[in-house]
Structures are given as C-alpha cells and as structure tokens.
Amino acid sequence: MSTAEEPAEAAPEERANVDERVSQAIAEAKSAALKALPRSRRVHDEESAHQRLAKRSGRSNTAFGLVLEGLETAEAAERAERALEAFPNVTATVVYNPGRAWITAPDDINPNEFIEVLKNVGIDSYLTRSTLRRRATRLDAAPLRRPSVPAAAQQVTEERIRRREAALRHSGVNSEVLFTARELVTKKRFWVSAVLSIPVIAVSLNVAWQFPGWQWMCAVLTSIVALWGGWPFHRAMVASLRRRMSALDGASSIAILLAWLWSMSQLILGHAGTIGYKTSPTWFAFNYRESAAAEVFFDVACGVTVLLLTGRMFTRYNRVRSGQIMRMLRIPAERRVTVVRKSAKSAEPKRLRVTVAELHIGDDIVIPPGAVIPVDGTVIGGASRIDAQLLGIGNEPQKVKVNAKVWAGALNMDNELKVRVWRTGSKTRAAAIARWLRMAIREETAVHQTAVRSASVLVPWAFSLAVVAFGAWWLASGTAGGAFAVSLAILSGIAPVALAMSTSTVQRIGILAGANNGILIRGNDAFRALAKSDVVMFNRVGTLTEGDMHVLRVAAEDGENPDLVLRVAGALMMESNHPASAAVVRACRVSRDAGSGGGDVPHWIETVHVEITEDGAFVGQVEIPVKDSEGKSELRFIEARVWRPRDLSLLSERMAVAALGGGAPLMVSWRGKVRGVITVGEDIKPDAVESIDALEDMGVDTMMITRDPYPVARRFADRLGISRVFAGIIASRKAGAVRSVHAGGETVVMVGDQDVQDCLRAADVGILMDNTEGTANVDMERSDVVALRNTVFSVPEAIEISRAVVRTMDANIYIAWFYNAAVLALSITGLIHPLLATLLMIISSLFIEWRSRRVSSRRKHLFKVKLGRW
After folding, report:
1. Is the Cβ–Cβ distance between 766 and 784 less than 8 Å?
2. Which of 82, 294, 591, 686 could pair covalently with 272 via S-S, beta carbons 3.0-4.6 A apart?
3. Of the candidate ranges 36-40, 391-395, 410-414, 571-575, the one whose mean pLDDT is the lowest
4. For residue 661, how many other CB atoms are within 10 A of its CB?
C-alpha cells in the first residue's frame, strides 16, 4: 500500500514545482521585455493608470461620475454621500434620481476606493462612460494640454473654430475675401463721403455755379472721397489680386480710380487746370464734343463711391445673419445658474451659483422669469409659460407645470421654475439643432463659394470689354472723353454681387426660415428634390398617428381564453421596444394585475429561446397550461408565435373579421394553430387629413407604406384620403419598396421616424419625423430634412418652402444675367451715364436681396389651409 500511495503524494509536489518554474519564466520574460523598452515606457508599465494620470494631469483635483445601483431611498443617498465625503479633500453630491454620484477628489486617489466604500454601505457602483472617456483621453494626451478652466472642452473647440476661420481668411480659400470688408463700410465713411461729394456733383452739373478754380476744389474733395471713402473697395481689389482672383467690387473700384486719375491728369497736364475752365454735363457718350479741350469726371468718382457705400450699407451679401438663431441655441458653458443642492454635512438645501459646465444630471436648477433655460429637464416646481418655437416645439408659448418637459434654449416668460436636469451641454436638443444648422450652412457655404468665384469672372471680362470699347469709340468718334465715359459705364454697371447673391442668399434664408418653423432642410440638393417631388410616402407608424399605441381589442378563437392569448403575446414581446410591443406588454400587465382570466391563466408565463425572425415575427417557447389526453391541464413548454399577417385569406372567418375590425392586427398562435388576434392602434394626428389634402392640392401624390394587410391599410388610408397604399411590407423590405417607386421615374419623399432610417436614405429626400422630443437617439446628421414639430403639416410646408426657394433662386439667376447683359449693351452703345449705371447696379443687388428675403416673409402665407397654425 505504501508504494502505491507515494506517486499520489508526489503528484501535488510536482505540479507545484512546475507552476513555480512557469511563474519564474513569465517573470523573466517580463523583465527582459521591460529592459528592451525605452525608460519612459518601462516606468509607465510599472505604475498604475491612476498614478500616471495624477502625474500627467497638472491639476490638484479631478472629477468622477458614478452610476449607483441599489439606491432605493433618499436615506441611502445621504448615507452614501457621507461615506464619500469621509475621504480627505473630497466633496461629493449624490442624486437619488436617477442614481448618480458626482465626486471632486485629488488626482492621486484611485476611483476604485470610492467604489469599495459604496459597496460597504450596500450600493454597487461603476464609473460613467463620460468619466471613463475623459480619464482615457487625459491619460493618452500630452501633459498640461488640458486648460485648467471651467468648460475647457467647449472653449478649446470654439478657439479651434476661430483659428480655422482665421486661417481660411488669410489663405484666401474662403470666398469672403472677394467681398468688400463690411466692417470698413461705416456710417462715418458714408456721411463724410456724402457731404464732400454734394458740392462736387452740384458744381459739376450746374455751369452757373462753376466759379474760377472750382475744378481744384473738386480735385481736393474728390481725392478724399475716392481714396479714403472708396478705400474698402480698393482694399478688396488689391487683396483679391494678390490671390489671383477678382473682387466682386473690383470693377467699381477701378472705375473710381480711373475717373479720379483721368481727371487729375487733365488738371495737371491738360487745359482743365486753367482758371476759368468750365464744362457742361454730358449724359450720352455720343454728345461729347470732339473739339473739347478737356473732360473731367470728378462727379463720377464721387458719385460711384457714395452710391457703392450706400448700397453696401443696405445689402448684407457678406453673410445672411444666422447669428440670432445660433445665439439663442448656444448655451455658454461659462454662464452661471442657480442650483439647489443639499450637503451631507447640513440637511438643509442651499442655493449655489455655478456655471452650466458644472451641472450634473439630476441637479435641480432655478430658472427666473425672462431667462433662457440652459438644460433639457423636467419641471419639479412652479408653473409658467415658455417660448420654445425655435426648437420646433409648439407654435405659441406653452404652459408648463410639474412633470412637464422643458428644453435648453426655451425662454421662461412668466414665473420662476425649478427644473431637474435631464441632459446638458452637447446632448441637449438645442445643441443637436445647432450642430445640424452649422453643418447645413457649411454645405451652403461651399455652394456660395462656387457662385462667388463664378461671378468674379465678370470683372476681368468687363475690364477687357471696357478697354476694347474705349479704343473703338475713340477711333469712331474721335473724342477721348466720350470713349472714357463708355468705359466707366461698363465698369460701373456690371453687377457680379447680384449674380453671386442670386442663389446662396435665398438658400441660406430658406434654411433659416425652415429652422425657425421647426423644419431643418439641409441644402441645395434637398431644396431642389423637394421642389420637384412627385410622391410623398408615409410610414404609417410614427408619422400619421400620435400618442402611445394601445390595445383596441383581443379576439380569441372558439374555446380559447382571450386573456391567455394576451399573456402569451406579452411574454414573447417583453424585450422589444417597438410601440406595438409596448402596447401589448402594458395591456398584459393590466390584465395580470386585475386577475383577469381566472385560474386557467398563470400569473407569470416563462419564456425561453425567444427570437425575432426576418419577417418580424416573435417566436419562442412559452410555459402555459396544456390539456393532456385525459383532459387534465399541466404546464408545458410549447412553441408560440406572434406575427402581423400579410394575407388574411389563410385565417378563419372569425379571425379575419377580427383583423379587419380596426387597428393593426397581431396574430397569436401556438402548436401551429391561430388562437387569437390582438388589434393595436393609435390616434390619428389632428392635422393629418388637412395635410394630405394640401399635398394633393399641390399636385403631389400621397402613398402609405405599412406592414398591415391590404384591407386594413386601405381602410386606414381612406380615412385620411391617401391615394396609394403599399401593404404587407415587412421592415426589412420597405427600403426596396421605396426604391421600386423611384425606379418608376418618380421623385420620392419618404416620411418616417428613426425606425425606418434605411427607407429615408433610399428615397430622393428623407424627412425624419422627430418623435422623441429630444434628438438623443435620432440620426439627424444623416437626414435630408428633420421635422422637429412632429406634425404632418410639416411635410407640405417643407415642400412649399422648397418650391419658393427654388423659384426664387432660378428667377434671381435669370434677372441677374439679364441685367448684366442689358447694362453692358446700353453702356457700349453710349446710352447710359456712369452714374446711372452705378445706380442701376446698386438697385439690382438690392432687388435680388429683397426677392431672396421674401422667402422668409412669405412663409406664413403659403397655404390657404390654416389648421389653426397661424
């Protein structure tokens, strides 16, 4: 026996020796690897992550966010707060709902210590995602890169944007360099130039007022006006030439300088400088006298300068100011707000003034009347009216009270509100809208740059034509003054600014007008596709109906229990977040709590192996009472199925009639037999019928796509007046249905929520209906159009705005080209004076801008159908 036991006793000792050798080999390998690495890398590997972070941060404190689990009472929250603040130099705030702890602690404290302390008081916790991401970023970043100021991230981003814009301006990539700097066109420059130009023009046009030496007075005054008053235009011309481009006001700048230089040369080198020289005004080039001793154009130099300054003070071609909207949507991180917090050391709540960047989820803030709400949240105290029209929420100020949602960027109008923070910073609805607008305007800016560069080509062509016309007129008429007047008229009359503004200005105004109405339209492609749309296709769920889905009726086959049918469906659909599934689950819980169905229906139904098939059916094993061959009931796991029928012909007459009773039918079956049908439905949006009528009156065909069988879908569509129906289409095939309509030659506008994003991308234009009222999970960045108001009327309104924008853009282009062609023809033939040509050029630019701005002013008069909106 002893010899047999020796190997058994030696085996554990041998295994221990092997383990020791393996551990030693691993340690030697690690040591060799560390020696092969640079010293800095070896030090990092020998230190823990939080120690390296403490060395690299360059700051004394850092912030942690913890998600708390098991926080069931306010007393537990206070106990957790006291435990955290037991650490030296640590401050903590624990928010009972939604279970968060916000901690400020020295950098060298490991966050795991906080987690262990909370675990000792019965609370499980872990770091929030934002905290983990922030710590990882700081660990990877170079030391001292993060500025030690509040709202560092936002400030760094804003500074980066400013540097990028400055680099674009200096590099000449930005088309704004082709425009005259607006900050130089001041009222002082205008009024000084106007006052000095009045005597010059008056004396030049009235021979009786031409006293001895008048021309020298005009020379002095014109020099100030032409050089100092016209400096913004000369500066733009020189800057554009340095970049080998042509400023849009370059031709006018050349006209001013040439008129001044010509006149000064006549005074100094010609006979115009003699005392007693007089000249009479000449309005047409062919009226200039061939024998005239000299011709001066001081009045033209002054007049062109003053008219240009006047026009540029009224026009805003540099930029359609979207600042009003962007300023309201932007909540500065450094803005201070009043927050109500309760310290663990004193049970009484205190009001503190903190910056928006220091707010946490779950904080309670006080919003005084007249202030802009800085966060998305829920009202927990007070009642007031808020104006959230800019955010697409309501068309008039809305009354809010306890439990009502409020949004960042909304204006509190009447009384003080106490709001619990739900989302802050970049996650708010206002921030999402602002990002979308910046992206749309950035795309519009690219189109604007192309238009500006195209329009700037007119300047060198006009200069070349002016040189040719000067030579031709001089040879034909023999009068240099008349030839020079023709050249000045050509240079003063062309309007590249009007051409550059013809599309970009109206497009940006259309974007901002839509945003101000709760409709975000991306840019030129979306405008044109919407304007020529033939078909608007609605996904039934989420666009034509509103409110939560609810169960309308539960019909069971003969011999089946309707409550059991509902319970089986609820058990299979428990994990789905689809509105129909949520409706069934809610109805199932109500039935269970009420004890409906009697003893034949189990209180809880177990499910296993539940899955969703490709056609959207719920299939799984459910444990329900089943009768055996002797008629006794026993619990068994059997396969059950819940699906939406595409063809009612396979159902029994009883089930088919129930499916057609109204709402979307859900069939429930087990053991291969249909046991009942559940119909779910929503309320039709109040503006749906009128909006469909408006689309039909606009010549746009309406279509609905749904998974319901055709009889159900057709009945629903008839209630709204929808022309065509695509019925029985499962979710995975809806995008193909949209493509099939497009393949038929029609321009398709698809309207749906985030559940049909594939369909939105498959259409010519996808209109995302924002049903979440928050944009947190909405892919706005990939959508052509976003309807923030969640009303059907947004669709015809977006189409009509797009049509107005496209009509205005096309008409502006025709008008701009017609004007430039007409003024060149009149100037070449000598039928137009340079001053009149300048006046016409200013009028054309202002007219184009006026037509563009009408898109915004007329948006309230787009429809005869009012819907109570205006």
Report:
1. yes
2. 294
3. 36-40
4. 15
Residues 57 and 102 in one domain: yes
Residues 308 and 188 in one domain: yes
What is the rounded CA–CA span in Å between residue 92 and residue 113? 14
- CA atoms lying within 13 Å on the CB side of residue 547: 10
Query: What is the band of 5 on the pLDDT scale with cuts at 50, 70, 90?
Result: very low
pLDDT bin (cut points 50, 70, 90) of residue 137 is: low
Return the amino acid letter for 433.
I
Separation CA 497–CA 307 (nearest Å): 14
In the structure, what pLDDT confidence band is assigned to residue 537 with cuts at 50, 70 and 90? very high
Per-residue pLDDT tens over the stretch 78-113: 888 888 888 887 888 787 777 888 888 887 778 888
Beta bridge partners of 536: 702, 749
799, 817, 848 - which closes a domain: 799
Distance, in Å, from the CA atom of 55 to the CA atom of 136, rounded to the nearest integer, reads: 14
Residue 519 bridge partners (DSSP) = 787
Distance from C-alpha of 379 to C-alpha of 165, rounded to nearest angstrom = 40
206 and 114, same domain (yes or no): no
Distance (Å, whole) CA 141 – CA 546: 48
Tokens 């709902």 correspond to what residue?
97
The token duo for 840 is: 């016409």
Q: What is the pLDDT of residue 155?
A: 53
- Write the CB contacts of 385 (distance below 8 Å, at least 6 apart in sequence): 397, 398, 399, 400, 412, 413, 414
Residue 589 tokens read as: 């819980």
Query: By mean pLDDT, which of 209-218, 336-345, 417-426 is the weakest?
Result: 336-345
Domain that residue 98 falls in: 47-146
The pLDDT of residue 647: 72
SS3 label, residue 490: helix
Same domain, 529 and 655: no
pLDDT of residue 538: 92
The CATH code of the domain that includes 784 is 3.40.50.1000
d(CA 828, CA 836) in angstroms, rounded, equals 14
Q: How far apart are CA 286 and CA 473, in angstroms?
A: 9
Same domain (yes/no): 24, 120:
no
pLDDT confidence tier of residue 167, bands split at 50, 70 and 90: low
What is the average pLDDT across 639-646?
85
Q: What pLDDT score does 794 carry?
A: 87
The 124-127 sheet, strands edge to edge: 91-95, 100-106, 61-69, 124-127
The dihedral over CA atoms of 441, 442, 444, 449, expressed in degrees to the nearest 10, equals 140
772: pLDDT strictly greater than 80: no
Q: Are 121 and 227 within one domain? A: no
DSSP 695-723: HHHTT-EEEEE-SS-HHHHHHHHHHHT-S
Among 703, 666, 702, 662, smallest CA distance to 683 is for 662
In this structure, the answer to whether residues 40 and 92 fall within a common structural domain is no
Question: Which H or E run contains 49?
Answer: helix 49-57
* Domain assignment present for 240: yes
Instruction: Give me the pLDDT at residue 318, please.
Output: 38
Q: What is the mean pLDDT of the chain?
A: 77
Q: Is the pLDDT confidence value at 472 over 60?
A: yes
pLDDT on residue 607: 85
The runs of H, that is alpha helices, within 74-128 are: 74-84, 111-120
Maximal CA-CA distance, the chain: 146
Per-residue burial over 581-611, b if 16 or more Cβ lie within 10 Å, else e, is bbbbbebbeebbeeeebeeebbeebebeebe
Exposure of 327 by Cβ count < 10 A (0-12 exposed, 13-18 middle, 19+ buried)? exposed
* Calpha distance 288→282 (Å, rounded): 7
Token reading at 435: 């990002």
* pTM for this model (two decimals): 0.68
